[in-house]
C-alpha cells in the first residue's frame, strides 16, 4: 500500500459499520458514522454541527482544518462528500462526546489504526516531515528580539506544551520543512551534531547545579541551532520517547518540540 492510494473500507465496531478511506498516508473515518455509533442519535449530522462549535469553544480552533471532505459510498450506493478525520483527530473529537462507549471505542480505534496503517519500507524521516508540515504549531514569542537569529524559532505541537515556556500566540502556525535533524532525546541529537563533545554538552543542562542553568540552556540551544544550520538542516526536532513507534504506524507523535533553522 502506498501513501497515495485511495482505498475505502468498512470497519465494524460493536456490529455497527464505520466507513473509512485511506487518504494522505493514513486512514480517515467518517465522523458522522463515529458519532452515530457513540451516541445512538437519530440526527448525527445535527449532533456533529453542534459539536464543532463546542470544540472551537474548548480551544480546538483548527477543527475545520483537520476535517477532510472525502467521497464515501452512502447507503443508497452513491458516492458523496463526507466529513472525515484521521485517527488523531477522531481521538480529539470523542473526548467531548459523553458516551459509555467512548473508552472501548478508543481501544478499538487504536487497534484498527495500528493494524492497518503500518506502511512497509517507509522512510520514518519523511513520515515525520509530512506530519509536521500538515500540523499546526504554537509559538511563545521570546523577550529577546535577537533570539531568532541566535537560537532559531521554537514551536510546540500543542497549546499546553507551548504554555510551559510562557504565553503562546493566540493562533497556531503552519511550517514547511524538508530536512530536519531529529531524535527521541536531546543527547541523541547532540551525538549527531557534536560526536566528540556530546556528553560534556549534555551535562551542562542536566547538572544538578541550578546556578546559571538558564544561561547554559540558551547557550546550548544556540550552539545546536548554529551547527544544525551549518550542516544543512532546516529544523531540530525532539520527539517523545514513544515517537518512533508512533511514526512506524503512521501517526504523529504525541509530543514534538520543533526549532526552525532559518
Briefly, what is this?
Helix content is 42%, strand content 20%. With 262 residues, the protein is of the alpha+beta class. Helix 1 packs across helix 2 and helix 9 (186-193) runs antiparallel to helix 10.
Indicate the percent of residues in helices: 40-55%
Give the termini separation.
35 Å
Write down how many β-strands occur, each being a DSSP E stretch of 2 or more residues.
9
The strands making up the biggest β-sheet line up spatially as 1-2-3-5-4
Major β-sheet annotation: 5 strands, antiparallel
Shape: elongated
Number of domains: 2
Radius of gyration: 21 Å
Count of discrete alpha- or pi-helical segments spanning 4 or more residues: 12
Helical/strand content category: alpha+beta
Summarize the structure in words.
The chain contains twelve helices and nine strands. It has 262 residues and is α+β, with helices and mostly antiparallel strands. The longest helix has 18 residues, at 213-230. β4 and β5 form a beta hairpin. The protein folds into two domains: 7-120; 125-260, no CATH class. Helices cover 42% and strands 20% of the residues. α1 (31-39) packs across α2, α9 (186-193) packs antiparallel against α10 (198-206) and α10 runs antiparallel to α11.
Amino acid at each position: 500500500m502506498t501513501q497515495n492510494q485511495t482505498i475505502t473500507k468498512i470497519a465494524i465496531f460493536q456490529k455497527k459499520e464505520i466507513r473509512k478511506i485511506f487518504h494522505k498516508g493514513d486512514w480517515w473515518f467518517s465522523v458522522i458514522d463515529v458519532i452515530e455509533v457513540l451516541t445512538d442519535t437519530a440526527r448525527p449530522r445535527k449532533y456533529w454541527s453542534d459539536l464543532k462549535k463546542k470544540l472551537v469553544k474548548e480551544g480546538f480552533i483548527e477543527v475545520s482544518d483537520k476535517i477532510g471532505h472525502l467521497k464515501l459510498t452512502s447507503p443508497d450506493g452513491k458516492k458523496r462528500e463526507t466529513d472525515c478525520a484521521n485517527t488523531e483527530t477522531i481521538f480529539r473529537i470523542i473526548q467531548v462526546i459523553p458516551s459509555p462507549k467512548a473508552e472501548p471505542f478508543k481501544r478499538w480505534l487504536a487497534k484498527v489504526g495500528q493494524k492497518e496503517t503500518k506502511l512497509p519500507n517507509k522512510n520514518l524521516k519523511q513520515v515525520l516531515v509530512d506530519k509536521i508540515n500538515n500540523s499546526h504549531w504554537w509559538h511563545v514569542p521570546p523577550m529577546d528580539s535577537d533570539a531568532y537569529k541566535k537560537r532559531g524559532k521554537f514551536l510546540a505541537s500543542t497549546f499546553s506544551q507551548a504554555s510551559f515556556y510562557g504565553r503562546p500566540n493566540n493562533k497556531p502556525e503552519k511550517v514547511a520543512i524538508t530536512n530536519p535533524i531529529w531524535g527521541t532525546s536531546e543527547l541523541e541529537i547532540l551525538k549527531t551534531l557534536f560526536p566528540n563533545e556530546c556528553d560534556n554538552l549534555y551535562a551542562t543542562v542536566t547538572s544538578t547545579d541550578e546556578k546559571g542553568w538558564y544561561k547554559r540552556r540558551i547557550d546550548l540551544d544556540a550552539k545546536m541551532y548554529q551547527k544544525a544550520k551549518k550542516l544543512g538542516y532546516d529544523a531540530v526536532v525532539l520527539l517523545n520517547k514513544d515517537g518512533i513507534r508512533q511514526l512506524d504506524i503512521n501517526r504523529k507523535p504525541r509530543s514534538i518540540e520543533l526549532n526552525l533553522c532559518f
